[in-house]
């Protein structure tokens, strides 16, 4: 389970006062239904048998709503690729090529149309390679962390206003990660322990990424790891913007 479907479950569970425990019978891992990171950490794959325990004053209403969601809505959290007509007539190949009796491997297009441009190799962002600013006082670092989180949250809200489809799903997943209690607590613990705000963000990304990626190397695990890294990088970016704005205001 990666961040997008996990964020849907987290949003639903947080609408109730009851406690939700997600137990993956295959992996033996348990997670809090009200935490995106905790759900990702259960290493839930397609076909896994899972048990959800609900306890609290509104547990019956929560059970009914979650049951309806799991059965009818959860399978459609991610947009499916467009249907392809297998019976459609295949494009012929040029006669000059056909005369060579080539072995043809037909593929399916996942996007209509064509495009051209310059191929550019993009490497993933290595947070550990970033040049981080020196550590300031705990109070200053706490303030910068709070301002950075707020700035990033507002940026996500603005993007969601103009998003649609898959874009909206990704942004909502990132917003759920940003609001996750475990994520924020780990950031704060790092700052209170004397780390700079930026160093705490890098450490938090490293702390939660293995939980999403070392249990298995499946696509959903890699996707979750990328979501966590992306949120961490954007939080650092927002933090630097907040720091720059703060310095300008003091001049």
UniProtKB/TrEMBL annotation:
The keyword Transferase applies. GO terms for biological process: phosphoenolpyruvate-dependent sugar phosphotransferase system. Keywords: Transferase. It comes from the Bacteria. SUPFAM superfamilies: Enzyme I of the PEP:sugar phosphotransferase system HPr-binding (sub)domain, HPr-like. The keyword Coiled coil does not apply. Residues 1-80 form the HPr domain. PROSITE patterns: PTS_HPR_DOM. InterPro entries: HPr-like, HPr-like_sf, PEP-utilizing_PTS_enzyme, PTS_EIN, PtsI_HPr-bd_sf. Pfam families: PEP-utilisers_N, PTS-HPr. GO terms for molecular function: transferase activity. Belongs to the PEP-utilizing enzyme family. This is Multiphosphoryl transfer protein 1. It comes from Serratia fonticola.
């Amino acid at each position: 389970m990666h961040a997008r479907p996990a964020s849907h479950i987290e949003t639903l569970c947080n609408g109730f006062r009851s406690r939700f425990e997600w137990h993956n019978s295959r992996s033996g891992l348990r997670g809090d239904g009200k935490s995106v990171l905790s759900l990702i950490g259960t290493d839930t794959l397609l076909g896994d048998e899972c048990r959800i325990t609900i306890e609290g004053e509104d547990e019956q209403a929560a059970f009914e709503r979650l049951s309806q969601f799991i059965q009818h809505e959860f399978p459609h959290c991610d947009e499916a690729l467009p249907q392809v007509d297998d019976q459609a007539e295949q494009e012929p190949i040029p006669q000059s090529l056909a005369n060579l009796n080539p072995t043809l491997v037909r593929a399916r297009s996942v996007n209509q149309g064509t495009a051209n441009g310059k191929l550019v190799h993009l490497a993933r962002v290595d947070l550990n390679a970033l040049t981080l600013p020196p550590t300031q006082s705990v109070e200053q670092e706490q303030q910068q962390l709070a301002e950075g989180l707020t700035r990033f949250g507002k940026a996500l809200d603005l993007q969601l206003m103009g998003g649609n489809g898959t874009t909206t799903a990704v942004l909502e997943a990132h917003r759920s990660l940003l609001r996750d209690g475990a994520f924020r607590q780990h950031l704060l613990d790092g700052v209170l322990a004397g780390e700079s705000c930026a160093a705490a963000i890098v450490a938090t990304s490293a702390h939660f990424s293995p939980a999403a990626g070392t249990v298995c190397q499946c696509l959903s695990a890699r996707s979750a790891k990328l979501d966590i890294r992306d949120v961490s990088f954007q939080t650092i970016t927002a933090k630097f913007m907040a720091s720059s704005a703060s310095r300008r205001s003091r001049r």
